[in-house]
Specification:
Shape: globular
Number of strands: 4
Order of helices and strands: HEHEHHHHHEHEH
Bound molecules: S-adenosylmethionine
Strand content: 5-15%
Strand order of the largest sheet: 3-2-1-4
Largest sheet: 4 strands, parallel
Number of helices: 9
Structural class: alpha/beta
Number of domains: 2
Radius of gyration: 19 Å
Distance between the termini: 11 Å
Helix content: 25-40%
Length: 245
């Protein structure tokens, strides 16, 4: 994911430094979790991971990638006649994703606020998403919420679907990197038809925990060997740059 400070590319180097300095432990608290890149890395190594961030989208990713340890079965959703014909796909998650990808696009919050048609009345209509992709994002987001309200999603299934949507949105947004502004010409990525992609499910059989919090306020609750601190690089918070996510 494009995110200021995403440590995806430098984590192996950071790990080398940790080993080199003899910093030992089996648990890590990712205090400013963001995209969860660091948490995912240590979870894969078998560490017990706690993660926290102010941003709600980060919490969704944390619940799906970090706290969740099981492949979703969608046992309430898949028997429904509307979803069950999609049997040829490999896993329950793939079947649900395939179903969401087939829904008729409907107008909603993203279409009405972040696409040119939805904001035609503004002097500069917004070009965050193409009209069709804006509707598809709305359809998928609204369907996930309806399933949740109808009690059809168990455990972390809700967050796994939200995380899939959040990750996919990044591939179609017409922004240079942050959502503070859109580009005035269409980036080729933004005009491709939106196709929802499933996230990777990571399991390490530890009791990993996700928090949507000011990490300072929960610090006393976390029992950890290693504290990983990657704060914002200046006094500006992240919400104005990532509000859409
Ligand atoms: C530099 S980014 C971290 C990037 C992360 N390491 C990654 O690889 O994606 C800083 C993060 O800290 C979060 N943040 C800032 N102040 C916070 C606080 N007091 N408690 C929790 N999260 C905070 C921001 O929302 C942002 O996601």
């Amino acid at each position: 994911m494009r995110y200021i400070g995403n440590k995806e590319n430098v984590i192996p180097r950071m790990y080398e430094i940790l080993i080199h300095k003899g910093i030992a432990g089996r648990s890590l608290f990712d205090f400013f979790s963001g995209t969860t890149s660091v948490s995912k890395f240590y979870k894969r190594l078998g560490y017990t991971v706690s993660s926290s961030d102010f941003m709600y989208f980060s919490y969704c990713l944390q619940k799906a990638y970090i706290e969740n340890n099981s492949t979703p079965t969608f046992e309430r959703l898949l028997p429904l006649p509307i979803v069950s014909p999609l049997k040829s796909c490999a896993s329950p998650l793939d079947r649900v994703i395939a179903y969401l990808n087939e829904l008729e696009p409907e107008e909603g919050f993203i279409y009405n606020n972040y696409t040119p048609e939805g904001t035609y009345h503004l002097s500069q209509p917004r070009m965050y998403f193409s009209n069709e992709n804006g509707k598809k994002i709305d359809t998928i987001r609204q369907q996930i919420e309806r399933w949740k309200n109808d009690n059809l999603l168990l455990g972390n299934e809700y967050y796994i679907l939200l995380a899939s949507l959040i990750e996919t949105v990044s591939f179609y947004a017409n922004v240079a990197g942050v959502y503070a502004a859109f580009q005035k010409k269409w980036d080729p990525r933004a005009i491709k038809p939106f196709i929802l992609r499933p996230i990777e499910i990571i399991s390490n059989r530890q009791e990993n925990r996700a928090y949507h919090a000011d990490s300072m306020k929960i610090l006393n609750q976390i029992n950890t060997d290693i504290l990983y601190l990657d704060p914002p690089y200046n006094e500006r918070q992240y919400a104005p740059n990532y509000h859409i996510l």
